[in-house]
Structures are given as structure tokens and as C-alpha cells.
Amino acid sequence: MAMRLQDGIFIAPFHSLDEDPTLCIHRDLELIEFVEKLGYEEAWVGEHHSAGFEIIASPELFIAAAAERTKRIKLGTGVVSLPYHHPLTTADRILQLDHQTRGRVIFGVGPGLLPSDAMQMGIDPSTQRDRMVEAIEVILRLFKGERVTHKSDWFTLVNASCQIKPYSWPHPEIAVASSMTPSGAKLAGKHGFGMLCVAATQEGGYDALGNNWRIANETAAENGHVMDPAQLRLVGPVHIAETREKAWENVKFGGLKYAEYLRQMKRPGKSLDEGDKPIEKLVEDGSAVVGTPDDAIAQIRRLQAKQGEFGTFLQLAHNWADFDNTKKSYEMWRRYVSPVINGMNTARQDSYDWAVNNSPEFVAQANKAISATITKHKAEVAAKAEQEAKVA
After folding, report:
1. Which helix (H) or strand (E) holds 177?
2. In this structure, are residues 10 and 312 in contact, taking their beta carbons and an 8 Å threshold?
3. Which of 185, 300, 357, 369 has a CA 20 to 30 Å removed from the CA of 109?
4. Average pLDDT of 259-269?
5. Average pLDDT, integer, range 351-374
6. Beta bridge partners of 44
7. How do residues 74-102 score in pLDDT, each as one tens digit?
């Protein structure tokens, strides 16, 4: 039996500069409540400190609030940028969340994405991946209850330990960000972590999927682990509606603002030109879906053909459409995409087809039974009348 693909969302978040930040943050909380009611299994929240668009600085604070508004959905840090934090305080915050959420938190880790974040902290980007590895290996020791003494060029621990043990056993699930380089895959394989492929549908990231998964599995085997595809999560942007035309009309709301932000982050000083169609390009190269549920299904099949089985698809919360149409897109995914991907209606279809194919025989038998019942009733009425006549 094929693995069931879970549904999730990945909230970076992306909010344009013309909106009120307070409303944006509260709308993100409302979105998590909404998708939980639809049955989504996971929601991930990012960490950023600059550039104005991705305005959640502490996924832990956000998750603490979201946990009070929800009951079932798992909440992931997507991700804690480990080089920005002391490992002891990071471990303490995650263990506190593990207890507050009663085991619903997933500890997503990464080196940090935006160069502007690192620059503000005086961190050399070339050190970030090594620091991520160093930090998580110390955090694992703290999760195990060890007292740790460790001196680094960027943090010091002296006989340090966490005050509380994990709520989850042996500790909260850990997932490491993986995009195009093999560093995340190597770390995941070494420790048996899950993988969070944040660029799974993008050019470069899509091509690296198979290679990074192979590296993770090879590294896991060398370290006595087995990679679990159920803990492999792929991220990609999607917006769907009843028709492609309606979906494209919806994304006029915020698609260009999103694209301009990414353009400035990747190609500083090069703004979008009049006539540029960046979202159309993303759809053409397979990076995004703007269309119908059938288009979304095709994207998942494409990823499965490339990668094989994976545990969760996380829709990127890009805010290309207004909030009502954004929620409608997530609802349509759950109503029309997820059931097809997971074969949820195959038994219903089989039952329907069986009933339809045998309908002539079944109707004939039912009509025969009806006719026999009527004939029997008439005979009983006639017999009763005859009996009454004899008595009279």
C-alpha cells in the first residue's frame, strides 16, 4: 500500500510592504486555525530578521500562540536559523514548546537564508553551515540530558544542561532544511533527521531532489540509520480555483509584489520590467501551480515520479491572492486534490461502478420482488374476501 501523503502549509511568511503588519500576523494565525479545520496535518513557520517581507522573527513565539488556537495540527519551526542563537537557549525554547504543545512541535533547523540577516549580526555567510552542524550536535546532547562543556569561536557552554526533559520521546522530531547543496542531506543522514526541501519545485532544487535524498540515505547507512520517507517534506507554491482563468485573476492581487521582492533579494537593483510575467514563468518551468485541482494533482505526480514516495507536501503561503481566495484554494486542495493523490475515493468508485454495472439485474430483481409482493397481497385480499363470503 502506498504511503499516505499528508497536507501542510509553509508560512515564511510573505507579506507586501503596503499592509498592516499586525493584521498580517494575526491573519497567519487565522490561516493555521482554518487549515486545521480542513484536516491539514502540519503548518511550518519561518524565521527572518530583515528585508521587510517575511516578518516573523520568532517561529517559537508564533507557534506558542498557534498552539493555543489549535488542537491537532503539528507545528514546525521552518526553520530556526541555528547560527543566530546560543544552543542552550535554543534547546530550552524547543523543549518548553514541546511541553506547551504536548508534543506537537517539530524542530526544523537551518543555517539561515537571507544574507541580510547574517550581515546585521556580523556573521560571515561562509561560516553558517558549519555553525549549524556544530549547534545541532550540541543541542542533541542537551536533549539527551547531558551536561555539556563546549567552547567554540561563537558560543561557550560550561557544565550546561537543560532543566526539563523532552515531552516527546526521545526528543521532538528534527528536520533539517535542504535545498540545492548537499549539506542538509549529509546532516540528516548522519543523525536520522527528517528533510525539509524548501526549493523542491524550483529549478535547481527540483533537480537536486534525487541526488540529495541519495546522499542522505548513503550517509545514514554509514552511521547506522535508515532514512524515513515519511519524514521527507517538499515545499512548493500553489494557487487553485474552479478554472485556470479564475486562478490567474486571483493571483493578480499579490503575485507581482511577491515576485518583485524575490527579484530584489536575488538580483539587487534589477526591478521587474513592464511586461514581465514572473508568475507565468514559475508555472511554465514547473516551479509553481496556478490553475485547477487537476494541475495541482499533476504537480504532485511529477514530484513523486522524480522523488518517489515522500511524507508531506507543504504549500507555500505566498499570499498571491486575497485572503478569501487563498482560503478557498486551500479548501479546494483538501476537497479535490488530496483525495485523488491518496486514493481516498477508490473504494467509493468501485462500489459505484459495481452498483451501476449490475443495475439492470438488481432493478429486475427488485421489480420482481415488488411484483411478487403485490400478487401475494392481491391473493391474500381475495382469500380473505372468499372466507368472509363463506361465513356470511
Report:
1. strand 174-178
2. no
3. 300
4. 84
5. 96
6. 10, 76
7. 999 999 999 999 999 999 999 999 999 99
Q: How far apart are CA 188 and CA 85, in angstroms?
A: 20
Instruction: Name which residue leads in pLDDT, 180 or 187.
Output: 187
Question: What is the Cα Rg of the chain in Å?
Answer: 28
Q: List Cα–Cα distances, 322 to 8, 184, 381, in angstroms.
A: 19, 34, 70
Contact 334, 38 (CB under 8 A): yes
Q: Is-contact 31 364, C-beta < 8 A?
A: no
From the list 162, 154, 151, 175, the residue with the least C-alpha distance to 86 is 154
- Contacts of 99 by beta carbon, 8 Å cutoff, 6+ apart: 164, 167
Q: How far is CA 63 from CA 73, 98, 162, 181, 189, in A?
A: 11, 11, 21, 28, 27
31 vs 319: CA distance, rounded Å: 11
Under DSSP, is residue 76 helix (H, G, I), strand (E, B) or coil? strand
Give which of 81, 129, 76 is closest to 109, Cα–Cα: 81
**The three cell numbers locating residue 184:** 542538509
Whole-number pLDDT of residue 275: 78
CB 381: neighbour CB atoms within 10 A?
Answer: 10
Lowest-confidence pick of 27-31, 270-274, 377-381: 270-274
Task: State the Cα–Cα distance between residues 262 and 332, nearest whole angstrom.
Answer: 27
Contact 251, 321 (CB under 8 A): yes
Which cell numbers hold the place of 290? Answer: 496556478
* pLDDT (tens digit per residue) in 123-161: 999 999 999 999 999 999 999 999 999 999 999 999 999
State the alpha helices, DSSP H only, in the chain.
Answer: 21-38, 59-69, 87-100, 115-120, 128-143, 183-191, 205-222, 244-250, 255-266, 278-284, 293-307, 323-332, 338-341, 346-357, 359-391
Cα–Cα distance between 132 and 50 in angstroms, integer? 20
**pLDDT digit string (tens) for 265-318?**
887 766 777 678 999 999 999 999 999 999 999 999 999 999 999 999 999 999
